[in-house]
């Protein structure tokens, strides 16, 4: 299948897929992209996510109050990636409700949701959600910047662990980038983020720096929602969003993305979503518009010539 045919297939999908496809893979103008993005809060996946919010500001529950934070974290992470316009009145109303009413559990000290809790991987996601959805947390950004390890990474097991983790580091640099974009720039956040990006680049996004061995075979299998889980496509998509140029250290990860493209020009979801409380996403093993969108825009960004996407 040609790239044009794959893009046409993406444009048949959910508004969240369509607006990002228009922005990242076509020559659509800003007005057309904005008009499609405006539909995310009112149709399809985005509308379904927003409709799940409870009067408490939380985003679902299985009846166990100790698990409510998992629903909040996962649901807001899905919403972040769907990308509704944060200035949309319906989005603004619902995010304000979460910002004002939702707290982490007592064992975390009951801080407000967007001010984070204890673990870097969770706090990175929370910072990214707040930045993307119009509730940036200066408190959380400062905390994460201060927790960066000597090697440039972050780890949920710090300070016991003094080495960065792929999972935690990617969550945090995604959060710092969203924070920067939301507040109009932050030299401190940008410096910490760039050090974190170098942590991943020095390891070719996949390998131990000490031995060169592949850290985890699962890094080469792509899915969504990722939540805290690292994979090479997610890392590449962050570097694309951060404006990184082509780099030889990305070659292996990019080759893995190309190798997983099907004969029909599409990618499948290879990994099961984690703790997803919403039955709206592509099932493992099925063709995935979200994975295909992310893969195509990564290849377009780093390869330049769309013809280079086909191998």
Largest sheet: none
> Can you write the helix and strand succession as a string?
HHHHHHHHHHHHH
Residue-averaged pLDDT, rounded? Answer: 92
Query: Shape from CA axes?
Result: globular
Secondary structure layout plus pairing:
Blueprint: H1 3-10, H2 15-25, H3 30-37, H4 44-51, H5 68-82, H6 89-101, H7 120-132, H8 138-146, H9 166-183, H10 187-201, H11 232-241, H12 251-259, H13 289-303
Helix pairs in contact: 2-3, 2-13, 4-5, 5-7, 7-9, 9-10, 11-13
How does this structure look, described?
Helices cover 49% and strands 0% of the residues. It has one domain: Glycosyltransferase (Alpha/alpha barrel), CATH 1.50.10. The chain is mostly helical and 311 residues long. The two termini are 12 Å apart.
Question: Which properties best describe this structure?
Answer:
311 residues, mainly alpha, Glycosyltransferase, globular, disordered C terminus
Brief summary of the model shown:
This protein is 49% helix and 0% strand. It has 311 residues and is an all-alpha fold. The longest helix is centred in the middle third of the chain and has 18 residues.
């Amino acid at each position: 299948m040609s790239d044009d045919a794959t893009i046409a297939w993406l444009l048949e999908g959910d508004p969240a897929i369509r607006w990002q496809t228009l922005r990242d893979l076509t020559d659509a103008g800003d007005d057309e992209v904005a008009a499609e993005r405006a539909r995310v809060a009112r149709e399809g996946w985005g509308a379904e996510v927003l409709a799940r919010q409870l009067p408490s500001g939380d985003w679902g529950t299985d009846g166990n109050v100790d698990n409510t934070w998992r629903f909040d974290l996962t649901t807001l992470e899905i919403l972040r990636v769907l990308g509704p316009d944060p200035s949309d009145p319906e989005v603004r109303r619902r995010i304000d409700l979460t910002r004002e009413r939702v707290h982490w559990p007592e064992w975390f000290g009951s801080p407000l949701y967007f001010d984070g809790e204890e673990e870097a991987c969770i706090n990175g996601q929370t910072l990214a959600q707040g930045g993307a959805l119009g509730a940036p947390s200066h408190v959380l950004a400062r905390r994460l910047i201060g927790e960066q390890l000597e090697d440039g990474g972050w780890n949920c097991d710090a300070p016991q662990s003094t080495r960065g983790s792929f999972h935690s580091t990617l969550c945090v640099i995604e959060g710092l980038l969203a924070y920067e974009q939301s507040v109009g720039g932050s030299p401190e956040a940008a410096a910490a983020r760039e050090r974190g990006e170098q942590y991943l680049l020095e390891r070719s996004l996949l390998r131990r720096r000490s031995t060169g061995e592949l850290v985890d075979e699962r890094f080469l299998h792509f899915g969504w929602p990722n939540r805290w889980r690292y994979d090479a496509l997610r890392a590449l998509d962050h570097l694309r969003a951060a404006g990184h140029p082509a780099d030889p250290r990305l070659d292996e990860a990019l080759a893995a993305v190309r190798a997983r493209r099907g004969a029909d020009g599409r990618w499948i979801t290879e990994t099961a979503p984690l703790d997803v409380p919403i039955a709206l996403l592509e099932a493992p093993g099925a063709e995935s518009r979200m994975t295909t969108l992310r893969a195509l825009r990564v290849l377009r960004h780093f390869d330049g010539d769309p013809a280079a996407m086909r191998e």
